[in-house]
Prior knowledge:
The protein is mainly alpha-helical. It has one domain. It is 68% helix and 4% strand. It contains 6 helices and 2 strands. The chain has a two-stranded antiparallel sheet. Helix 1 (5-25) packs antiparallel against helix 2 (31-50) and helix 3 (61-81) runs antiparallel to helix 4. It is globular, with a radius of gyration of 20 Å. The termini are close together.
Amino acid sequence: MHGPASPGWLLVALCAATGAYCLLRMRSTVEEQRRAAGGEALMGFGMAAMAVPAAVAAPPHWAWLGYAAVFGAAALRALWAARGGGHHLHHVVGACAMVYMAVVMAASPGHHHAHGGSGVPLVTGALLLYFTAYVLLSGVRLLPVAAMTGSTGSTGSTGSTGSTGAMLPRPARTPGWGDRPELSRACRLSMGIAMLAMLVTL
């Protein structure tokens, strides 16, 4: 993408770290979470690649077309999975936003050094509104989830009987990295913020 180098590298680091965590989430024992994590890992690494400052590595024209093809296939896959509901509709919007940005950069005559005004204002504005609402909603949802997991972990559940005959609390099982809802929401929040930053530069 285009823009100053320092914020660009921060965006690359954020997206790459998010993609790496999503790879860890793919070790979850829940199949639905593994599928969602796989799509989000692709999104994170794809955003990291697209956010590399053009002054360092200016992608050729065919690279943007490649991005569009990859995320177009990801959008179709998410759309097929969205028949069962869940978080897949957001994946469809995210993948379509990536296709849109890639097409805009490929079609722009000076896409290597453009500084805004390259996209379709109506489409860009609609995506900005969507991801702004998504980021705000994700931030609101993140706080109670973190508080609830902390409170449940401290109380535990009743279990074995001690030597005195009283019921002793059984330690709550610590969820794995792929099953912690607050980390998954933080991951999606980070990608939503990164998407906003990339759309603003169009």
